[in-house]
DNA sequence: TAAGTAATTTAGATAAATCTAAAAATATTT
DNA sequence: AAATATTTTTAGATTTATCTAAATTACTTA
């Protein structure tokens, strides 16, 4: 007998775990590891094991000792709802309250837990049903659906490749501030001018400007939609 | 040695207690009683005693066993900050997201705990520095200052008295919906036509329309600014 | 003023979320 | 395949916020 999801309520802590497990699932392997979750949430593996047990009981994850966790269909719904709220609030903060894109993640981490489906829908409407947040991350719709065209990390591209900078896959304000300083913005066209084998650093020309040098630590987080 | 307030952080539960104690202080007697707090917060007196102890240690209330609590200057600051956020968010929900005034209190109860002073200031600016929330409650400024002209409950007025309906001193959606149904809105002029001694019910003419009957349970929550 | 009643506090539990230290299981490396 | 290292789980505590039941204090009233 599956539990009724409709009025299932999750604590902030539970929501954060569910979201993190969802993200780690997306980003790769089956069987998300206890340590990976602990790292992400800045908690200890022992705490993660406890919480995973609880989430498994609530059937938002599948879990077998020592085998890692996998998000369930129910869990995916919960995660996408939280992610939807996070990204909508980020849009609100940037578009309406004039925050810079490096200032919004922390605040959205709080706002994503506000419980009111009407609020989420009204906010979405108020913002004009945005498709992406200020960092280019897609915003799931009410049903949890969203589309992402295929992207590659800039670090994976080759010399002479051309593309569109569409997303930053990292929330660190230092990275975002650095991109600001370099005048690199979402939506810019770019071309790979040079790539250093030894350290993976790259020379990139954005919008036909003088090329800039970017280290591998940076380029791995810049997501590019290839063109031609 | 007084504790540094600047980076004092309070839990949601603590903030709710502080806010409630502040409100009860305003609404009357010195020495807010354990039971009054328990009623307001839908908890048990034993829980209140525990929490009061904690708040006394943090010096946001003054407390002596069996003597009730009084909010301290520090506590007042914390309370006013939370109240400011609550009311600003209510304005946002009504003005920007088109909520009705009876739908916003619950959601504001959550939003008032979001921690970000920049957010509060930006929101205030976005809303045009409103002086009152959708129920007519005054919004404290950044320094916690606000002004209320003198008001009386409608129930305290006499036949032939005239005034301006400026505030509803109750969040219950049923009351607010009833006022909607009766087409009674903030800012309306009114005149007391009749007052029944037995039950305190009143006949009131709003904006020179056909008088309406209102029970004491209603009139005690309608705050009036007297004119002439 | 002495009972009786009401309000408040204490004592002892519980649930949630976290931790440290130790044990157990799994993975990796000689 | 052992030995070693890493990961994960268990055991046992801690903190916060809550509760019930019992004890204590204060207030009312006869
Ligand atoms: Mn974010
Ligand atoms: Mn984002
Ligand atoms: Mn309210
Ligand atoms: Mn209000």
CATH architecture of one domain in chain A: Roll
* CATH H level, superfamily name of one domain in chain A: Ferrous iron transport protein A (FeoA)
**Overall geometry of chain A:** globular
In whole angstroms, the N-to-C terminal distance of chain A is 51 Å
Summarize the structure.
Chain A has eight helices and eight strands; from the N terminus they run αααββαααββαβββαβ.
Structure in words:
Two copies of one chain form a homodimer. Chain A has 228 residues and is an alpha+beta fold. Among the domains of chain A are: 5-71, Arc Repressor Mutant, subunit A (Orthogonal Bundle); 151-226, Ferrous iron transport protein A (FeoA) (SH3 type barrels). In chain A, 39% of the residues lie in helices and 15% in strands. Chain A has eight helices and eight strands; from the N terminus they run αααββαααββαβββαβ. Chain A has helices spanning 12-26, 34-41, 45-57, 73-96, 105-111, 117-126, 173-181, 216-219, and strands spanning 61-63, 69-71, 152-153, 162-168, 189-195, 202-206, 212-214, 222-226. In chain A, strands 3-8-4-5-6-7 form a six-stranded antiparallel beta sheet. A two-stranded antiparallel sheet of chain A has the order 1-2. In chain A, a hairpin with a 6-residue loop joins β5 (189-195) and β6 (202-206). The longest helix of chain A is centred in the middle third of the chain and has 24 residues, at 73-96. The radius of gyration of chain A is 19 Å and the shape is globular. Mean pLDDT of chain A is 94; it is low at 1-6. The interface between A and B is medium-sized, with 18 and 18 residues. The complex binds manganese (II) ion (MN) (4 copies). One manganese (II) ion binds at residues 87, 90, 133, 135, 137 of chain B.
């Amino acid at each position: 007998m599956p539990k009724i999801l409709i009025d299932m309520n999750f604590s902030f802590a539970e929501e954060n775990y569910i979201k993190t497990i969802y993200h780690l699932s997306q980003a790769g392997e089956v069987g998300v590891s206890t340590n990976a979750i602990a790292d992400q949430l800045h908690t200890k593996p022992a705490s993660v094991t406890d919480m995973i047990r609880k989430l498994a009981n609530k059937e938002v994850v599948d879990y077998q000792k020592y085998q890692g966790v996998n998000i369930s269909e129910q869990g995916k719904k919960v995660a996408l709802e939280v992610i939807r709220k996070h990204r909508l609030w980020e849009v609100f903060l940037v578009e309406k309250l004039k925050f810079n894109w490096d200032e919004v993640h922390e605040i959205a981490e709080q706002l994503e837990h506000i419980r009111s489906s009407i609020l989420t829908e009204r906010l979405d409407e108020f913002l004009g049903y945005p498709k992406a947040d200020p960092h280019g991350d897609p915003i799931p719709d009410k049903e949890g659906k969203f589309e992402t065209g295929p992207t590659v990390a800039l670090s994976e591209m080759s010399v002479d490749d051309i593309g569109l900078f569409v997303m930053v896959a990292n929330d660190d304000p230092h990275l975002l501030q650095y991109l600001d300083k370099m005048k690199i913005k979402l939506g810019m066209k770019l071309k790979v001018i040079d790539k250093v084998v030894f350290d993976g650093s790259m020379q990139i020309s954005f919008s036909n400007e003088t090329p800039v040098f970017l280290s591998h630590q940076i380029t791995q987080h810049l997501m590019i939609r290839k063109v031609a």
